[in-house]
Amino acid sequence: MPNPSVVVFDVNETLSDMRPVAARFAEIGVPAPEYLARLWFATLLRDGFALAAAGDREDFATIGSGVLHALLAGSQPNRDLGSAVRHVLEGFMELPVHPDVPDGIRRLRAAGLRLVTLSNGSTAVAERLLGTAGIAGEFERLLSVEDAGIWKPAPGAYRYAAGACNVSTTEALLVAAHPWDIHGAARAGMATAWINRDGSPYPGHFAGPDHTLAALDQLPGRLRP
Asked: pTM for this one?
């Protein structure tokens, strides 16, 4: 497989470390905070996908807030519901990158690859995340499905990213921690790299990745000529 000219990064969970979100749930006094953090994010994605499948769209923050209101309404947080929702969402905006990200990003850029993001979330979240990590300048563009008009994993989202970089999808590689994202990019014609930090098995019902990595800093070695 030829090396890509553009590497397209998913943002949430792929670059950002979402483990601190569970602490935010714990701070508002709800039971099983780690479970609720995972359920919240999975439900947020589910609802975004459902809207896309129906031909509609809504921004990530609006869906995230709506799902939080529904989840927390029966959980008796230690503050009023609006304050509890804001506390969790503010924590989401303050997440760090995974430890393997800065070195991997810098090495990929040093190898001459063009780097962009493609997030189902907002560009503002990616700007803060990458700016805080000191690697925002390594990226050519920060792209969001808000401009694509359709959420990933719809093919149009990946075609939008390739078009924004003036390349075909076959010249791009998507890096993601989510098998559904890998599947969508593969179906759109992109090469793919799955970051599997926790050793989970890859679901057989999705198109498999071209590269499987335990950490992002392994990718530069995979793309050497």
From this structure: 0.95
